Amino acid sequence: MEGMTVLIVGSGGREHAISIGLNQSHSVGSIHIAPGNAGTAMVGTNHPVEASNIDGLVSLAMEIGADLVVIGPEGPLVGGITDRLREISIPCFGPHSEGAMLEGSKMHAKDLMKQLRIPTAAATRLDRNSDIKDFLTQNPPPWVVKRDVLAAGKGVVVTSKTDEAERFIYDSIEKDGFVIVEEFLEGEEASLLVIMDESGYVCLPPSQDHKRVWNGDKGPNTGGMGAYAPAPVVTPSVHSRVLKEIVEPMHHYLRNQSVPYRGVLYVGLMIDSDGRPSVVEFNVRFGDPETQVTIPLIESDLGEILLATAEGNISSLNPVFSTLSSATVVLASEGYPGLSKTGKEITGADVTIDEGLSRGYVHVAGAIIQGGRMVSSGGRVLAATGIAPKLSQAIDVAYQIIDSISLEGSHFRNDIGHRALPPKE
Ligand code: AMP
Ligand code: GLY
Q1: Residue 406: other Cβ atoms inside 10 A
Q2: CA-CA distance, 31 to 15, in Å (whole number)?
Q3: Residue 322 C-alpha to ligand 1 middle, in angstroms?
Q4: Closest-lying ligand to the alpha carbon of 191?
Q5: Distance, CA 15 to ligand 2 centroid (Å)?
Q6: CB burial class (10 A; 0-12, 13-18, 19+) of residue 42?
Q7: How many helices (H) and strands (E) does the chain have?
Q8: How much is the CA Rg of the chain, to the nearest whole Å?
Q9: CA-to-CA distance for 425 and 346, rounded, in angstroms?
Q10: Considering the entire predicted model, what is its pTM?
Q11: Residues with C-beta less than 6 Å from any ligand 2 atom
């Protein structure tokens, strides 16, 4: 049988990881990416169509005769790309616009969790009629303030400073009409990616992201500065609680909607010291950089898994996972997560490691090829990924790779995986 033609939408490290996974799939013949980056260009054909251009993406899918479209970012999902592709019978991995509202509106997700009795932080909606100062006096810090819009990782402030909380609350109400303030959850975070459709679901190995920009989890939130998998904080007993209390009720709800959910549900978790899980957020797409550490641990054919899900048939497969561990370290541009300096040359990103069971390589994110040189084009430029029998070895491989790369002004965290490693002597 000739392999499928797949179109991947997006341009980050996540999409490079998906394209590498599909390139290793026997079921896949050719890979197209829109718009892609310097990494995806090495695995397939990039097309200059932005992820926000839904008409352009639908036309491209028809033009190349796509057998499957895989959506990376949330924007086109909320914008209804899946609805459009299903109208013309092109299988699409990613939920329709209604399912995507789980990420598109945090208030909608909160209301649903309340209805389904899924554990999550209590939330209050504040608007122009609320007494903000009184609210902050009555509710002790830290305050978790969330805008109810897609804000590319910039819509949440966690702070104990009254002036910072107040400013973000007033600014958000000014922009959006209202804002959400959540109870602060104590514990350790983990991400569980659950591939699901109406026939069933498959949990990928749990991972942990490092959201703060600086070592020791300090500084502002970012899209993610590194990740590792599997995350030991998700013990077998935590995992079974997450399934029973969160994944099962969500799956039961989503499979019974008039248009069932077909894609990945990203469950952002906080796990307290008693092993009690709560939902921090739902996303309707693969995480970035969680995907870079999760997809390399899938041993089965990724193309078959994504197609089966897009067709509502995931229960026909029984995917197999590796027993190895993986880690990825993000290299960010100067200034990230603020205004990033881009357009700078990157060298050394083609380095790979292949020693016994250990291997490592670069997942390209915000970088393009210009005049034969690799040049930075975004905040998160690349992710150096290691895969090895032990997590400590995977982390070493990732840092060995990052040490061989140069990009002026760039920065990275040097404590990725610290929670999962024994303390240093
Ligand atoms: P979100 O976009 O909702 O995932 O929030 C971004 C980050 O803010 C999360 O990954 C957490 O690190 C932090 N955060 C969000 N909600 C809470 C909460 N209720 N309690 C503690 N930290 C939170
Ligand atoms: N790494 C966090 C996210 O993808 O939302």
Answers
A1: 13
A2: 11
A3: 30
A4: 2
A5: 13
A6: middle
A7: 13, 24
A8: 21
A9: 35
A10: 0.95
A11: 209, 223-224, 283, 287-288, 290
